[in-house]
Every structure is written in C-alpha cells, then in structure tokens.
Amino acid sequence: MRTQVGIVGAGPAGLMLAHLLHLQGIESVVIELRDRDYVEKRVRAGLLEQNTVQLLTESGVGQRLQREAMHHTGNYLRTPEWTHHLDMEKLVGRSIWIYGQQEVVKDLIAARLEYDDPLLFEVADVAVHDLDSERPRITYTHEDAQQELDCDVIAGCDGFHGICRGAIPDGVLTSYERAYDFGWLGILADAAPATDELIYAWHPNGFSLYSMRSPTVSRLYLQVPADEQLDDWSDERIWAELQTRQASEGWQVNEGPIVDKGITPMRSFVCEPMQYGRLFLAGDAAHIVPPTGAKGLNLAMHDVHVLCEALVDLLRSGNRTGVDGYSERCLRRVWRRTSRTT
Ligand code: APR
Description:
The longest helix is centred in the C-terminal third of the chain and has 22 residues, at 296-317. The chain is an alpha+beta fold and 342 residues long. The chain has helices at residues 12-23, 36-41, 50-58, 63-68, 88-92, 101-115, 235-245, 296-317, 321-341; strands at residues 5-8, 28-31, 47-49, 70-72, 75-78, 83-86, 96-98, 119-120, 124-129, 137-142, 145-150, 153-156, 174-189, 199-201, 208-214, 217-225, 258-272, 275-276, 279-281, 287-288. Bound molecules: adenosine-5-diphosphoribose (APR). Adenosine-5-diphosphoribose (APR) binds next to helix 1 and helix 8.
C-alpha cells in the first residue's frame, strides 16, 4: 500500500491531522492500536481553548460542539475566605468551551468515515522504517495479515507511550522531564455541577478543582501525594474532602454516583526536536504537560494545524520551509505552556 502521509495513532492529534490533510486534498492512512469503541469512550481532557474551537468549527467538524459544548467566559478562584470570578472574556477577550476529548474524537471519526478514507483500528506490531530517506515505511499487522505502507511522510501521533519517538536514533533527541511529588485524584460523577464555571480552590489540605463534562456530569479533582493509593479513598471520603476543600458559605458540591475514578501522576515532558528526517511527532508523542492547565489537547491541535500547513507546502511544491521550522514553531508554544503550568 502507498499513501502520502502515514499517521500512527487515532487520538485527537492523528485524527485532526488526517482531517485537515483531507481538506487540502492530501491522502493519508491512519492506523490505531485500539478498537473504535475504546478510543471513543476514553475519558481524558475536556477543556477546549478558543483556537481549538475555531479550528474544529472552521474545518467543518464543529456542529455538535456548537450545539452541546458549555461555553465559559471565565472561572472562579477560591480560598476558604473568598471566591473571585476571573472574567477572561472581559479581561483578554478569550473564552473556553467544555467538551470532552472523546466527543472531539467521535466527531473526527464520523467525519473520516463519511469521506471513506482509510482509518484502521486494532493494528498490531507497528514499526516505522527508513525515516531518513525520501520513502519512509510503516509495517504493521491488521486482521492477521502483515502490511507495509510506503509513505512520503510519517506523522507520529501515537501519544506518550507510542513507538514513533523511540524509533528516532539515539543522540538525535534531547528530552526534558520533570515528575512532581503530587498527583490528582479525579472523579467523574453523575451529578449536575453546582457551579456555572470551573472553581480552582486553594485549601490547607491541598488544591481541588470543580469542573464538569455536561450539565449532568461533574468532573472533580483532589490534589494527593504522588504515591497515594486509590483504595484508601472510598466514595464517602472523596465527597467529604471535596466538600471541605471547596467549602463556601451557603453552598455545597452536588454529590451523585461516581462512575469513574483514578489518580493521575503529574509529569512534564518535552522532546526536542519534534522531527527526524521524514518523521514528525505531534501531540503527546512529543510533549506532556500536567493536566493542571488543561493544555495537552489544545497543544496537540496546534501542532497538527502547523504540521498540516507545512506538509501541504512540502508535498505540493517541495517547499521545505514549513517542515524545517515545524519543531521550533510548536515548541515555542509548548515551552510557554509548560513553564506556566509548572
Ligand atoms: N500504533 C498505533 N497507534 C498507537 C500506538 C501504536 N504503536 N501507540 C499508541 N497508539 C495510539 C493510542 O492508542 C492512542 O489512541 O495513539 C493514540 C494517541 O492518542 P493520545 O494519547 O490521545 O495522544 P494525542 O492524540 O497526542 O492527544 C493529545 O489529547 O486528551 C488529550 O490530554 C490528552 O494531551 C492529550 C491530548
């Protein structure tokens, strides 16, 4: 098989890149380790910045988002003594939308299937080859058959644990990493949020965040030590601690059945450069920021927007300016976001 751009990974980065390339008439094949149901149900990020919403809307996959996303003009900062509303729209003219990552993924998969370009789920044994040549290749197994995909370019959108970054020869990349001594215990609950916008709360017991996924689903986080055990946190203990850390006079966190809970370690990781030969890394494959700033998904969208423009120039007219500057352009933004959230 042959394609112009071989895309490894059908997360937000891989799917969005494939969609943007399609709009420019560039063909691609997307291969994904997991099944469709898994990627469409994976609960992760859920805050879209203005640039991301604009990109999704202008590229024609924003209809459901425009209908269903919750639009926030700011957020609340809280301590046990006071609550302050930060009106971002008024202060800087920017706002945010609450819309789950899995919803973005569903919309992008639906678009891709509609125009019937290759999107393969449940591939295995993925490997990338000849990255420093003009014809890089991807090999993989799909439906028990071994496949080889010849490409002009490969996009490594396979997340932090993917194989693309590791296929770059030793000595090319410099990695920067920082692990924090705390994590976030996050819950998803069938409970209408008791707030119209996010509440970032400081408390002597530790930080907590009140956020939401929809008018009926709350997403809440408690800062905990990095080595905390989830088993030590019964649902009752979680709600009690949230009530304590989020307390405000005459107001309470709305409780309901907890449908998902987990502890996320806090880590920052950046690799430089985000490219080697004809392999380009995008999204979590190249950088991770802690969820504290809700930047991961938005940075991934920015990467693939820049990458798409660069690949169009390269593949249509052989112009290398965009691809040569890809890493630097994306990393400038990544470093700004990384230092802000650390
Ligand atoms: N072959 C094919 N696919 C792979 C492989 C592989 N060897 N390894 C991983 N994948 C797939 C994963 O199963 C996943 O679906 O690549 C995809 C990577 O997706 P994400 O981890 O979501 O990464 P990315 O697309 O960069 O998403 C960026 O979205 O939800 C947010 O916070 C999240 O920061 C993250 C952001």
